Prior knowledge:
Blueprint: H1 4-24, H2 30-47, E1 50-55, E2 66-70, H3 77-84, E3 92-97, H4 98-101, H5 107-112, E4 115-118, H6 126-137, E5 141-144, H7 163-171, E6 174-180, H8 184-192, E7 199-205, H9 218-225
Helix pairs in contact: 1-2, 2-3
Amino acid sequence: MLTFNQIKMAIYATYLTNYFGYKLTKVSSATEKKNLRFQYARTLLGKLDLEIKIINQEKVPKDGQYLLVSNHKSVIDPLIIEIALENSNLYGHWISKKELYNSFFFGLFVRNAGTILLDREKSQMGDFFKDIKAVVKEGDSIFIFPEGTRSKGDIKLGEFKEGSKIIALKNRLDILPVHIKDNANDMLMSSLKGEKIKRVIEIKIGDLISYKDKSASLEDAYKEQFNIN
């Protein structure tokens, strides 16, 4: 059974997500969307009493186009990454599942925040890669969770899907690896229980990986950078 605090936070988060989703329908530039995404992330994480600590922040490029790849443990991972990019001009389109597009909770926000729909039910992926090429041509980056879904329990890192490296190669995007060190889902659940303790989630920025680099798979290169066994 949900606690009063969980119900209260669910109502607030739904309101906030749709409020910013509506605001995003009124803007069109990458800068405006980036600013609104950051404001949303800072507001919601602040309400949850979650502090983000960025390790190697100097490795975040100020400008350019990249394929940002991250591990995925919680629903708030995109927010954590938005905070890490605060002082950068990087603006990326998130690869988003069809379920999020149709979600009552996330739908309005996701459809307008700068995302590319990944419909896994389609047998052909031509439109998906065409959409990516179009936004890259406009000067934007691509943000993706290469595991394809959230890893559960004690799994440190799920298997990377091949699509991530294909995106990098097809669009000549060097890869910006980031790693959320802490289990953000555990901290989110703790926050929702109303436990009044300080929670700090660390996110580490890695070294750029050339899209031309064939010395190791993307998954192996990622693991090596962040010492994941």
